[in-house]
């Protein structure tokens, strides 16, 4: 299979902290990205909008985008609730007519849309509904606690703080040290990047932990370390159930706590200023007490997202996090990832010694 | 609508702690129960098997049950994973032919079974799939924290310890005191009993808290107190995500912790002796810290299930729980429910004073 060439839809919501899926594809597979469709930034290049991504153009219509020869349309923003905006349906029809497949990470499945499904059949194109869970998922049985590799889960102070990005970066850095490391995708973006995984937030609630268990066992083959992509946050009023199902299903031996340093409120409720983000040490204690209620685990490092801070502020944020928690802290994208890579490598050595001693 | 007359299927799993749905229907609506189908106890009466239920017969085949004139078949056991045993499909077909509706609380929806769906259409009967969630559930927005009544959630040390039963009993007792109390069903059995509700464990994970919020708001009309039926347990490896989604979506002002006094291990994993049930005070601390991360809440009482203990042992269990936690503790079915009723009534007075002071 040749690599796809995506036209990414991020209309009306393209920006450093909003178009999470689009941004990750652009960051990790810029060579697969033909253009971004966003009427608000049409005429600019991606670099202007995101601060990375180079000369990839932003176009203002589906027609302009299709001229550039994409092989697929990728839905690159995840609106709250996951609903497909009505207007986009026409664009997707146009793209199918032009011979494109569609990659969709929303809760709404395109294959369930009679018009688009019929058009895909007629044009011979594929609708990839990446959030559709596999059938026959198990109830968690505890299998994940017995896998051979060290399992590390990223946990967060909120949604969209860098839990996936941290794991992708740490995977690369651990591999560079010769530690066989497997990234386990648990959300639509990770699945788009890696070509496998389950969007655990789209699974029927009773089976979330079972899905996490299946993923962890699957990821543990021929690996020294398994890095499970975290979801949501333990105090996110809408998504905490997903976070906890993932935590208890994957049975991590260690956790890395992710935080966006400038954020003060849980983002989805920031307009109501409902939930102020408590101190990092409070999260460490919550995640450790809840995680350890099922499988022994602890937080071994802090991964910060400092994209909107100056260098001086960012350095200071890392120092503060380290002082507050007593744990290694860094922004693994902006600065040296070594503090976290070392923490995982050390934890793995400790883990192997403990296993041997048993 | 005339009340249904159920033939309850509990084949192979009929007993005091196994056939939870069957037992609740029999306990609260014995007049609606024609017979129980269970080959293992065929020929006995329900009283012999459960210790309550009187002379309701246990039959050994669908044919014998249908002779007694039920208007509906009620699936009364919830096997792990919720799968419909293959053998039952024939029984259900036989029952549809005999003019019965079917009440189903499993994760498998009967309406999705082509054979049974066709037969129901042909015979004009109804397949009630009680776990099918409504379409278009919201993401939780925090509405539940602002409802006028006091919201009380039951939380548990495990599944199947009495979280629903406690709320039903407390609803009755609070009503007797003139406090307008609304029970909010969050599982298939509660829905069967009350005729409304959402089985939150069958909702796509991202929407569990939204479903809990919708239920709480719905239950708060013309009520002084809302008693939300809890699900699962915060340390249940398979179902903790449901528990936490319900906790954060319903924003309880207070919680009642439910426990079966004789239980030592989380039941679904007892064969592997995986997870020993920690002390009650540990649960109080876990539920309070996690609940309060979204909305101020505390545990105000302990509801014990002592069905398998002698009177002396049961009294002692209540005293021990009270000493350990410093909270009122009782078995509200077996003994006087007043300690818990008082705790809720007092909490409501405190709640009203605080609201007024604001």
Topology, pairings included?
The structure is a homodimer of 358-residue chains.
Chain A: E1 6-9, H1 20-28, E2 33-37, H2 46-50, E3 58-59, H3 62-67, E4 72-75, H4 86-97, E5 101-104, H5 114-123, E6 127-129, E7 150-156, H6 163-176, E8 181-184, H7 188-194, H8 208-219, E9 225-228, H9 240-250, E10 254-260, H10 280-292, E11 298-305, H11 311-325, E12 329-330, H12 338-357
Provide a concise account of the structure shown.
Two copies of one chain form a homodimer. Chain A has 358 residues and is α/β, with parallel strands linked by helices.
Q: What features would you highlight for this structure?
A:
alpha/beta; 358 residues; six-stranded parallel sheet; homodimer; 12 strands; Rossmann fold
Description:
A 6-stranded parallel beta sheet of chain A has the order 3-2-1-4-5-6, sandwiched between helices. Chain A is globular, with a radius of gyration of 20 Å. The mean pLDDT of chain A is 95. Chain A has 12 helices and 12 strands. Chain A has 358 residues and is of the alpha/beta class. The first copy, chain A, has 2 domains: 6-129, 3-Layer(aba) Sandwich (Rossmann fold), CATH 3.40.50; 143-357, Rossmann fold, CATH 3.40.50.300. In chain A, α1 (20-28) packs parallel to α7 and α4 (86-97) runs parallel beside α5. At the A-B interface, α8, α9 and α10 of A face α8, α9 and α10 of B.
The main sheet of chain A orders its strands as 3-2-1-4-5-6
**Could you say what the CATH architecture of the largest domain in chain A is?**
3-Layer(aba) Sandwich
Structural class call of chain A reads alpha/beta
- Find the CATH topology of the largest domain in chain A: Rossmann fold
Q: Could you estimate the helical fraction of the residues of chain A in percent?
A: 25-40%
- Chain oligomer state: homodimer
Amino- and carboxy-terminal Cα gap of chain A: 46 Å
Helix-strand topology string of chain A? EHEHEHEHEHEEHEHHEHEHEHEH
Which protein chains make the most extensive interface, counting residues with beta carbons within 8 Å of the other chain's beta carbons?
A-B, 47 and 47 residues
Mean pLDDT of chain A: 95
